[in-house]
Amino acid sequence: VQLVESGGGLVQPGTSLRLSCAASGFTFSSRTMGWFRQPPGKEREFVATIGASGSTTSYADSVKGRFTISRDNAKNLVYLQMNSLKPEDTAVYYCNPVIGRRPLFGSWGQGTQVTVSS
């Protein structure tokens, strides 16, 4: 299993970023995928999920209405469009297949750092 996140950076509050996750080593198109994040000094937390076909999504209350998860099954990619970013969105962001809102695999990629600061 390989999960490679990218697209993070240092941005100002109110701006946008799009994260990508490239997945391999499992049947991507048949798995619900999720995004998680780990703020500095805190535990990793759930952000969003998307069903295998892309037709169902769910979000943490803290990001609902601002973040959008999507996927491209032909390319084994899952995305996280983040709009109206806030300083509290600062975290390392990770992807993983999920069961419910819990990660399926115990191993994680390197993550991608998102820092929201003026």
Keywords:
118 residues; mainly beta; 7-stranded mixed beta sheet; 11 strands
Q: Count the helices. How many? A: 0
Instruction: From the alpha carbons, calculate the radius of gyration and give it in angstroms.
Output: 13 Å
Low-confidence stretches: none
Cα shape: globular
Strand content: over 45%
The ordered H/E elements are EEEEEEEEEEE
Helix percent reads under 10%
How many E strands?
11
Average pLDDT, all residues: 97
Biggest beta sheet attributes: 7 strands, mixed
Topology:
Elements: E1 2-6, E2 9-11, E3 17-24, E4 33-38, E5 45-50, E6 57-59, E7 67-72, E8 77-82, E9 91-99, E10 102-103, E11 112-116
Parallel strand pairs: 2-11
Antiparallel strand pairs: 1-3, 3-8, 4-5, 4-9, 5-6, 7-8, 9-10, 9-11
How does this structure look, described?
The chain is mostly beta strands and 118 residues long. The protein has no helices and eleven strands. The strands form two sheets. Strands 2, 4, 5, 6, 9, 10 and 11 form a seven-stranded mixed beta sheet that branches. Strands 1-3-8-7 form a four-stranded antiparallel beta sheet, with no helix packed on it. The protein is globular, with a radius of gyration of 13 Å. The mean pLDDT is 97.
